[in-house]
Amino acid sequence: MGLSQQTGISDQASDIAALLKGCIDQIPENLPARGRGDAELLLTLAERCQDNKKHDAAIELYDEAICCDNLSERAFAGMAFAHFSLNNFGVALTYLKQAANLQQMLGEGRQDADYEPALAYLNKMISAPPVDDAVQVQPLQQRCYHRYVNKHPPHKNFDDGEEFKKFFLSGLIPPYPFISKDHNIATIGSCFATNVARYLDKRGFLANKTNNNECQYDNVYIDDEFFNTYVIREAFEMAFKAGFDSPNWVAGEAEKAKDHADRAILYNKEHIEMLLGDADVYIITLGLAEIWYDKQDGTVFPSGLNIDKYDEARHGFRLSSTEENLENLESIHALIRAHRPGASIIFTLSPVPLLATFRPINCVAANSASKAVLRVAIDQLCQAHENDDQLFYFPSYEIVKDHFADAFEEDGRHVTDYVVDFIMDRFSESFLTE
Question: Most buried in the list 152, 179, 180, 304, measured by CB within 10 Å?
């Protein structure tokens, strides 16, 4: 008795197998070639092996085809079919999801293959009760032929747009651009957020911003730079929560004069509510995970501490944890979804490194740790809300780090105008409609 018979839904198995084969047959053979090597030949050989029920050989060939072209819908669908034939339902589901994603991302609206029935069936198979030991799938059938199907770029400075998209944007960007000039766009975060606002402003998009570099725009701003997730969270709480109060914010010069730690942001609540309360798109740029905090009440300062105000008994410095930053990002996400449920949220990570660190290690190592904490927090947020189709991460940090051999000005920290324009042009191609 086979595995599908033990689960009580074997009457569907042959139909689903036929459906999977049908999906593969419906994928157009004349899709643009995006990979290198002999992907088409490998696919032909794999499908021939599959037709002859040589499933292990087919898997090996599909794996080679994916290595040549990891944007091949046909290869991922074929791999799903081969693993389904061996009762490797979890692996089959993984590959079939990727085939469906590729159809949506690269198919230009094509709906040739309907993957939903097969996806639903595989989910049901995975959630079915475990089988008896006597009918467990054999080790040979349980083998998983993952070979890092999304590979690290082999070099820097890609000239080919499709190659760049494959290595840096695949799996992160929406199927089609959707941000128009009719949308209200709010940018908030570290100094790199100013570059985003500047670009959007030049393109004629409404780019409200929180940064006040040179006051170049007649848009709403807050007179500070939002480097850590604590103060970004507080800005959203101020916009959306009644009765918000924090020592990090003062509403006038008189209150500012009472700020003995020189920690607070001088703000205009109406500006913040205008910026964040009515946005259709939020672009949130995270900067650093190193924080100054108040030892007496545990509150975190919005940015660096004025050294003239330093009090060893009260002021502390540390690297915040991934869990702390994830909690802040979850709160931001929840506030936006509660008050602006249809809004799009795009997170980025600033490529600008630390100027200095108070940790007892060199600044290069400290910067790597700081960026890693934030990048993991963003990734965990996106994984936790994978069904939120309006939550995105745009890889400005990775583009600077892994695409360019030298992306910085002479100070070694600020990104050159050329690199900023390159990043924002890729952002435009991915998100902006005009």
Answer: 179
Cβ proximity of 339 and 240 under 8 Å = yes
Indicate if 202 and 98 belong to the same structural domain: no
- Residue 415 near residue 409, CB atoms below 8 Å: yes
Q: Are residues 192 and 327 in the same domain?
A: yes
Same domain, 407 and 315: yes
* 406 belongs to a structural domain: yes
Residue-wise pLDDT for 248-295, tens only, equals 777 766 665 555 556 666 666 777 888 888 899 999 999 999 998 989
CA distance 329 to 421: 27
Overall domain count for the chain? 2
Q: Is 259 in the same domain as 381?
A: yes
Strands 281-286 and 184-189, by their bridges, are parallel
Question: Which pair of tokens denotes residue 172?
Answer: 């992160």
d(CA 389, CA 343): 10
What is the pairing mode between strands 206-209 and 249-250?
Answer: unpaired
Q: 207: which residues sit within 8 A by CB, 6+ positions away? A: 185, 187, 196, 197, 198, 200, 201, 217, 219
d(CA 83, CA 74): 14
